[in-house]
Write a structure and sequence with these properties.
mainly alpha; 49% helix; 0% strand; PiggyBac transposable element-derived protein domain-containing protein
Length: 119
């Protein structure tokens, strides 16, 4: 029972749980907090002498610095959407008339493929 009491004590020092968070985020933060506390316990068993606050800050710094070190360039055409890609629509595209309603006499929007090819 000593192990459970110790982990509860370590979790109570830096609790990320607030009333304004939704339950799913609370569960994720709780599991992340338990993982960090378990790694701190292993750190102290190996011989680490730093306090838990320092250990948590070092984890955050290492995560941020590993994100900044990522030097893989993003291709220039990575985020470009090709509107006129008719080949992928082949066999899946059908014209359908949108009926008029009491509030709208004509359809609001036309199909992008049909509009670009004046169909």
């Amino acid at each position: 029972m000593c192990g459970i009491d110790r982990i509860d004590q370590l979790l109570s020092y830096y609790s990320p749980l607030w009333k304004s968070l939704k339950w799913d985020r609370k569960i994720i933060l709780q599991h992340l907090d338990i993982a960090v506390s378990n790694s701190y316990i292993l750190y102290t068993k190996v011989g680490g002498k730093q306090p838990q606050n320092w250990f948590r800050n070092e984890i955050i710094r290492s995560l941020i610095s590993s994100r900044e070190r990522k030097d893989t360039p993003v291709p220039s055409n990575y985020f470009i959407y090709h509107k006129s890609d008719v080949s992928r629509m082949e066999g899946q595209h059908y014209m359908d008339t949108i009926p008029a309603t009491s509030t709208k006499a004509t359809p609001t929007r036309q199909c992008a493929v049909c509009n670009s090819h004046q169909i």
